[in-house]
Structure formats: structure tokens, C-alpha cells
Amino acid sequence: MPSTQEFRRRIKSVSSTKQITKAMEMIASIKMQKSVKTIAQARAYIQNAWNILHLLSEKILSDDHALINPKDHAKKTAVILITSDRGLCGSYNSEVIKKLTSFKNVILETEGTPTSRIQDLDSRSGSQPVWNDNTIDIIAIGKVGAAFVNRYKIGKLIAEFKGFENNISVEDVIPISKLTNGEYMAGNYDKVVVIYSHFISSLKQVPVVKQILPIVEDHIDHPELWEGNNVILEPEGTPTSRIQDLDSRSGGHPVENDKNNTEYKFEPNPDEVFDGVLRQILRTQIFGAILEANASEHSARMVAMKNATDNATDLVDELKLVYNSIRQGNITSEIAEISGAAEAMK
Amino acid sequence: MKTFNLKLISPTGIKYEASATAAFLPTAEGTIEILPDHMPLIALLSPGEIIIKNNAETKSLVTDGGLVEIADNVVKILADEAEEAHNLDEMKILEAKKAAENRLANAKDDVEHADAAAHLEKQLSKLTFLKRRRHK
């Protein structure tokens, strides 16, 4: 006689798992709504910071600021990799990490590997590719990314930040922007990019590579250019447009024409203001990327937990069916035994 | 009375969007007063207090620094942070100040040192702001 005990235990355990996933789903959904709201609020700020930069770039045209035009820099890229601190969020982290590896491959291809191909193949141990350790340095935001970089030696991990998944303010980003800015100005990198998951909707997040230094403006910064349209987030490796180019491309750009004739006074002086604006843009770029990543993380977790809850429901249904039929079978055979015995007693 | 439009934008949303009769902004070279028909100006803000006056109403906020753009009687302030005075919690600021002081003492390199010093300066500006308000 098969035992119902084991099935009862399994049903109980699956149902309690289901309760947990259901709760996590609801928490993630609330957090997602919050982060989406934060993004909306931050967009006005980011947009206005860009507007002032446009205005300035028309007024002073000091194109040779180091944050826009790199000079004599080492051929090295720093990557800010934004992942989550915790797991249970579906393919969120692996998508971002996949983007990192493909980004690195693109760099290796376009710049040529220092060793010859054949040697490269020989040194390849097993299925794991051996990375040239000097191409990229990584600043990891989030534990998962940092652990991955450490394990597979994708690049040198120069800093690790965590605890960015909930409410963050621009102030929290300042150490990161100071670090990148300092290293960049010192000439250690010729490019700094952020790799993160861009939030499009609660069902769709796209991992993107976004260049933040030297400062360029691309279509990720313009929601009107990607919302609704097919999202063509910039293909990596291609040079992105310079600030001035964009005015002509995006028709209704918010730099009003009548302002072009206004003579501005700058305080303390034009160069310092320009410098300040560029720094502010850098900060808001990193801040914006983290906000997008947070919204993506929470929605990825919400979807993953919803799937888990649905699976658990199906599993409980199936187990219940089996459990009931076993129980019924047991009862039937018991009755048969009793009536058989009663028959034999006659 | 003549007025101008003032918009105070921070990363956590638009904090003020209305007309105003005067505004006092902290810059590196001291506090500047903005009145209607101010000349076009782009200036960097330093940590301090933003005071917005609309006739009899006065509103004051603490900022961490940012930017201001003035043109055609429209004043746009982009502040990294703007907190209204009554939202400030003295205990919290004191705690943050202590943390910053600790970090300053234990800083291992220049970057950390500069970061902690900047943090401390911000908390101090918030504190002086609170003190000044209490004396009023």
C-alpha cells in the first residue's frame, strides 16, 4: 500500500514555498513601482542638466575639456558593472554579465589581441576562455557582478560597491563618480562605460553598454527616441555622437532658439561652470543608470517570483491529484479487505 | 509687485515651481540675490541655504550644491539635493556628521579623505542652517 504521508509532506512544503514566493513577488512589485517613480522624477533633472550643457557648449565652445575630448590616454576601458546584491531575480544578472563578456570580446576583436590566434587557442584551458587581463578594469556595483568578475577573471576588479538597491540619492553616487573621474583625468583610461539593465517596461529590460566618459549624448538619454519605437540601444564599439551633433538629429530638442541670442554671465567663470556642469552630468549619468538597474532588478525579480508562484500552484494541484487517488485507493483496498474478511468469517 | 518664475529641480523631483519675488542662492563667492529681470546668468551653487520669497511667503531649503540658470525671468535651479527645513532631522545630521568624522580619521587615501571631508562640510552646512533657524 503506497503511503500518503510523503505526499502530504511534499504538498505542505510546496505550499509554504509558494507563500514565500508570493510575498517576494508582492514586495518586488511595490519596490518596482517606487523605482519607476524615482526614474520619472530624476528624468526632469537629467534633462535639464543636458539642456544647460547644450547651452554652454554653444556659448563657450571650449571643446577641449578633458571630460569631452580625451588626450593621450592609456588604451584601456573601465567598466562600471551594475548587478544586484541578491539572487532570485531570474536572468537579470546573467543578462548583464553576458553583455559584459560580449563587450569585452568586441574590444578584443577591434583592437586585436596581443598574442597570435594560435597561441591563444593553445593556452585555452578546457572550455574556459583565458582573458587578457589588461583590457578592462571593472568597478562592480552589486555583489553578484563582483563575485563573477573575481571568479572568471574578466578584468581587474578595482572597486566594489553594494547596498544600492533601495532608496539612493545622488550623494551615494559621489564616491563612484569621484573615483572614475579621478582615474580618468589621471589618464589611466580612455573610456568609461556603464553596463546595466535598462528598464523599458516591467516585462522588458535590455542590458546596455553606455559610455559615460568621455561625455557623449546618445539615444539612451532621450526617452522620446526609444519609447514606443523599436528600441535600438546603441551597438557597442561604434563611436557615438558628440554633443553638438545631436541637436540636428533630434528635431524638437529642448534648446529654445530665442535663448541662443542671450548673453549669459557666468559665475565664477565660464570654464569653472562648464567643468561643474560636466561633473554634474557624470554624476547624474551614473545615478540614472543605477536607478534604471534598480527598476529592472525589481521587475525581473517580480516576474521570476510570479513564475515560481505559478509553478508551485501547478505542482500542488498535481500532487493533490496523486495524493487523492492514493488515498482513495487505500480506502478502497481497506474496504475490500474488511468485506473479504467478513465474507470469510461466514 | 513684479515676479519671476522659479523652478527648483532636484533628482527626487521638482521641489518648487511657481512665481517668486526674490531668491537668495549660495554661490562660491557668497550669497546672491535674484530679483525680477535679473540678467542672464549661469552659476554654480555651493552647499548652503536657498531662500525663496513670494511676497510675504518665505520658503527655505538646504542644498548640497548644484547649478542655476537665469534667462528671461525664468530661474531654473538644479540642486543635487534640496530638503525643506522642517524635513531636516537634527539627530540624523549629527549621526551623519559623526560618521563623516570617523571616515575622515580613518581615511586610507586621498580619495577617501576628500570624500569624507566633502560629506562633513555638507552636514555642517545643514547644522548651521538649523541653528540659524532656531535663533529666529
Strand fraction of chain A equals 5-15%
Please tell me how large the radius of gyration of chain A is: 28 Å
Poorly predicted ranges of chain B (pLDDT <50, ≥5 residues)?
Answer: none
Greatest interface and its residue counts? A-B, 35 and 32 residues
CATH superfamily of chain A: ATP synthase, F1 complex, gamma subunit
Overall structural domain count of chain B: 2
> Element order, helices and strands of chain A?
HEHHEHEHEEHHEH
> In oligomeric terms, what are we looking at?
heterodimer
**Largest sheet of chain A, described in full?**
5 strands, mixed
Helicity level of chain B, as a percent range?
A: 25-40%
What integer value in Å does the Rg of chain B equal?
16 Å
Low-pLDDT residue spans of chain A = 113-131, 224-259
Number of helices of chain B: 2
CATH class of chain A: Alpha Beta
| CATH homologous superfamily placement of the largest domain in chain B | F0F1 ATP synthase delta/epsilon subunit, N-terminal
Number of helices of chain A: 8
Termini Cα gap of chain A: 27 Å
The CATH architecture of chain A is: 3-Layer(aba) Sandwich
